[in-house]
């Protein structure tokens, strides 16, 4: 075995260990046990303290005297009530109750509570993320071409009626199976570029909604590296309680990309 091969094997092992650590986070995506959409009328959520409702801009929670202190926001107990204003499409605001985390989110103008529990059965059952063996065939170069101005690209979501708005900075042209294909690229060269894509394996051996592939930083001439062996699942591949985007139409490849992470819940894909 050459030194290069050894280094490559070590990099692959480190990457897979990093992904496993991501999946095992005590309050990460595999800890989700519920997603509760809120209406305008006060309601209780099974197993949670407080009464919850949403108006056009905020989420309101109130607690009875016997529940005082069972919920905390920014480390301070909620004694009677609180108003929370999560950002559209942003990470949720965090309310704690015991070991659990209530993530208050806003998606397409709707508000929801996403419940993280370190005792989640999904997290307890996790062993590994299935993945294709790495294959150098799927390490290819492409040409990144920035747009004159960044664009907002809207895609659907795995939850019907929701929309995701992505900042698209350009496109990447890559040759796969002898055909040049152009994909929409999200992110920015300064903070990292990525694509969301599907292919002929999606919904068969890989997750059906989309997979994500990070691109290398572009060279001066726009050359980037795409290592499809490092295509990863979105959180929705692991749980029904996420609201992940779908791949844009331009990034739905007609060929089978038999590389990267496979569907951890075969038969439950979007």
Automatic annotation (TrEMBL):
It comes from the Bacteria. Pfam families: DUF1684. This is DUF1684 domain-containing protein. It comes from Nocardia aurantiaca.
């Amino acid at each position: 075995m050459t030194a290069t091969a050894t280094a490559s094997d070590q990099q692959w092992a480190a990457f897979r260990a990093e992904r496993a650590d991501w999946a095992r986070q005590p309050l990460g995506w595999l800890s989700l046990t519920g997603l509760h959409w809120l209406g305008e009328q006060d309601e209780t959520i099974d197993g949670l303290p407080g009464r919850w409702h949403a108006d056009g801009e905020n989420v309101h929670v109130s607690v009875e005297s016997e529940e005082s202190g069972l919920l905390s926001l920014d480390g301070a107990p909620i004694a009677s009530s609180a108003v929370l204003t999560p950002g559209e499409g942003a990470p949720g605001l965090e309310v704690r109750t015991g070991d659990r985390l209530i993530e208050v989110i806003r998606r397409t103008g709707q508000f929801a509570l996403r419940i993280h529990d370190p005792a989640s059965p999904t997290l307890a059952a996790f062993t590994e993320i299935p993945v294709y063996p790495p294959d150098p065939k799927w390490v290819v170069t492409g040409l990144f071409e920035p747009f004159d101005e960044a664009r907002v690209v809207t895609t659907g979501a795995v939850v019907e009626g929701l929309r995701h708005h992505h900042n698209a900075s350009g496109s990447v042209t890559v040759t796969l199976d002898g055909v040049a294909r152009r994909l929409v690229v999200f992110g920015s060269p300064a903070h990292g570029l990525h694509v969301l894509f599907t292919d002929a394996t999606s919904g068969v051996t890989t997750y059906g909604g989309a997979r994500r592939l990070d691109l290398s930083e572009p060279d001066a001439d726009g050359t980037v590296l795409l290592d499809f062996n490092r295509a990863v699942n979105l959180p929705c591949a692991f749980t029904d309680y996420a609201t992940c985007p779908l791949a844009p139409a331009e990034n739905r490849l007609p060929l089978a990309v038999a590389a990267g992470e496979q569907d951890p819940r075969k038969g439950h894909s979007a």
